[in-house]
Amino acid sequence: MTATSTTVESSSPATLWRIDNLTGAEVLDDLSPWVDAYEEVYAHALHLPDHNDPAFGERLAFSAARSGFRLTAAYADRELAGFVYGYTLPTTTGWWDDFTPAPEAGADVAVERPGRTFGVCEALIRTPFRRSGLPERMQPFLLSGRTEERAAGLVAETNTHVLDISLRNGWQYVGDLAPHPGWRRHHCLVLPLTD
User: Fold this and answer.
1) Which structural domain, as residue segments, surrounds residue 84?
2) Which residues make Cβ contacts (< 8 Å) with residue 64, sequence separation at least 6?
3) Most Cβ neighbours (<10 Å): which of 79, 117, 149, 165?
4) Number of domains making up the chain
5) Mean per-residue pLDDT pooled into runs of 10, the chain (195 residues)
6) pLDDT of the residue at 194
7) Is the peptide bond before 103 cis (omega within 30 degrees of 0)?
8) Residue 95's CATH number
């Protein structure tokens, strides 16, 4: 998969937005922009296991080496505004370990088949660019051309703002889990990608 880029119109005529899709090799070439942005956004919470065990750079490098990886980055006037990334979950994934399904979740929601799920691992928006509609700008570009049946994502149970944005954009709540030992519980969300 090659990197793709697009320029999108802004609600503010003074801002030029650019959105790029990057491959794992491109991200692994230099992790520092992504790690720096992560540490800036989560500076207040880097002491929590959710943000340091394992360290973000290790998690990103692991993901970037996986099949089907894509990172979508948004820039405002050439400044990194935010990014989101994920990869195709393998059938042996630990993604669903510790999963407690919601009553309305399907019986096979935590079952992986080859190519079933694009796992969205991380999404963040730097403070100056919040409330600018970036999730709505980046999500279609991240998911464009994906061949998986669905996307899956996790939202920390205390992050009601991101949960509300996700539900408003078509994601469905299917249950809860702790992604790694010692982490807070997270809400599990899925988004159908095929009809």
Assistant:
1) 4-192
2) 24, 25, 27, 28, 71, 85
3) 117
4) 1
5) 49 77 98 97 91 94 98 95 97 95 93 97 93 88 96 94 91 94 94 86
6) 78
7) no
8) 3.40.630.30
